[in-house]
Amino acid sequence: MNFLITTKDRNARRGLLATSRGTINTPAFMPVGTLGTVKAMSPDEMKEIGAEIILGNTYHLYLRPGTNVIEQLGGLHSFMNWDLPMLTDSGGFQVFSLSPLRKIREDGVEFRSHIDGSLHFIGPAEAMKIQGILGSDVAMVFDECIPYPADHEYAARSIDLTTSWARTCKGNQNPGQALFAIIQGGMYKDLRRKSAEDLLDIGFDGYAVGGVSVGEPKGEMHEIIDFSAPLLPEDKPRYLMGIGDFGDMLKAVEAGFDMFDCIMPTRNARNGTLFTSLGRISIKREEFKCDDGPLDPHCGCYTCRNYSRGYLRHLFLSREILSMRLNTYHNLYFYLDFFRKMRASIETGTFQSFKREWENIPF
Amino acid sequence: MNFLITTKDRNARRGLLATSRGTINTPAFMPVGTLGTVKAMSPDEMKEIGAEIILGNTYHLYLRPGTNVIEQLGGLHSFMNWDLPMLTDSGGFQVFSLSPLRKIREDGVEFRSHIDGSLHFIGPAEAMKIQGILGSDVAMVFDECIPYPADHEYAARSIDLTTSWARTCKGNQNPGQALFAIIQGGMYKDLRRKSAEDLLDIGFDGYAVGGVSVGEPKGEMHEIIDFSAPLLPEDKPRYLMGIGDFGDMLKAVEAGFDMFDCIMPTRNARNGTLFTSLGRISIKREEFKCDDGPLDPHCGCYTCRNYSRGYLRHLFLSREILSMRLNTYHNLYFYLDFFRKMRASIETGTFQSFKREWENIPF
Question: Whole-prediction pTM value?
Answer without folding.
Answer: 0.98
